[in-house]
Write a structure and sequence with these properties.
heterodimer, A: 352 residues, Peroxisomal Thiolase, Chain A, domain 1, nine-stranded mixed sheet, three-stranded mixed sheet, 12 helices, globular, B: 142 residues, mainly beta, OB fold (Dihydrolipoamide Acetyltransferase, E2P), five-stranded antiparallel sheet, three-stranded antiparallel sheet
Chain lengths: 352, 142
Amino acid sequence: MEVGIVSYGAYLPRYRIAPQEIGRVWGTDGDAMSRNLLIFSKSVPSPDEDVITISIEAARNMMRRCDVDPCDIGAIYVGSESHPYAVKPTGTVVAEAIGASPNLTVADYEFACKAGTAGIQTCMGLVGSGMIEYGVAIGADTSQGAPGDALEYSASAGGAAYLIGSKNIVARIDRTCSFTTDTPDFWRREGQCYPSHGGRFTGEPAYFKHIMAASQSLMEKMSSKPADYAHAVFHQPNGKFPVRVAKQLGFSEKQIEAGLLTPFIGNTYSGAVPLGLASVLDIAKPGDRIFAVAYGSGAGSDAFDITVTNEILELRRDAAPTVKDLVEHKKFLDYATYAKFRGKIRMKGGAE
Amino acid sequence: MAVARFWRENEPRYNLTGAKCGNCGRLYFPPRTVCPVCHRKSIGKMGPFKLQGTGEVITFSVVHDAPSQFELQKPYVIAIIQMDEGIRVTGQVIDCDPAEVNIGMKVQAVIRRLGEEGASGIIYYGYKFMPLTPPAAPRPPE
């Protein structure tokens, strides 16, 4: 049975902060950080936004583009490392808010930055086996870096939702494969507000090793080569890693251009590859082949070989904002307002 | 107690679901179980009716002296919105400066956090309104 993307939707908070503004406060050269990370701005959620609201907005944009009855959705998986509750699934609120409750299964996923693509793989299995008609996979985050830490220049917020099914597929998922090891490059212990990381250890033995292995494995299984793909999307913790890994694999800068968002919105963690893929689908043409590889610290990579079908022309892509619209609809904050929005200021009483 | 009270209102708060009188066709939000015009003739005939979520600002107020849960958002705008279906709904207007809000401004409903029962309590979600996103500028040919 052919399984693929039936619809998709994205969401980004409106607010942004520039690395120069963060650097100004911490006595760091913001221009140098911006150059080193290739990040010009990152998205910042409002005080009333979290992974639940971002997931719902992305899922609603997904539903606006198609005619699928929400009651036919048999599963919702929300991947994030910043679920608002430690115990109380994000997906339950999403299901209720898109009218999919109550006859479905729901679970929250966590796998650092690749929990969203893990949800896509789960939905593929459930749809492919005939257990459900449609499944929804969402990758969303409102991640934080400790004040002054290098992560603060990149950790941002956003998400995208995918409706996975076997009918009216706009982008067929030809194959997926993963590569997973126990690599402690980045983690957050229970109860801790901010994550810890292994500095440069997050590069070669983590990001590059896993993405390279998953990518090479997928191309071997598909007997394909980089030139066969119109677009490629790689996990993008900063603006430089995806460019470097693409080059190492043999992809051109042109191939990764449409899906490279981190320079403008920062690292949206679980939302990164789902948002990059949504950005590609916004402009994709029938027959376009897409190579998408997510990476989650801890560590693992999910690789996807996707082919856009003629159905993409029937999808109401203009019924919801494109990723480009969302990226450009922005308002910059100063550091003080950013600190207030992100709960970095200790308040008295009931406020966050 | 508060958990159950908010939970009962999840559907209208999440999805702007009101009620339509099956006798006279009038719409109500929040939903009512009896039409105040048709009275007993409406009993058993009140059905759910989902608002589209778009409307315009009829009037608004800028709140500078905020309750503790809204400290991080002040000054914020609370407005009466005339929904496209004719119903008026009170809600917060977000994602813009209070100075940008004006009477007649087109808005659309989005879901946001409404509040929470302290740091360990339940989080409440519901509708707020943001300015209707202006249409995207025409893109240059590829």
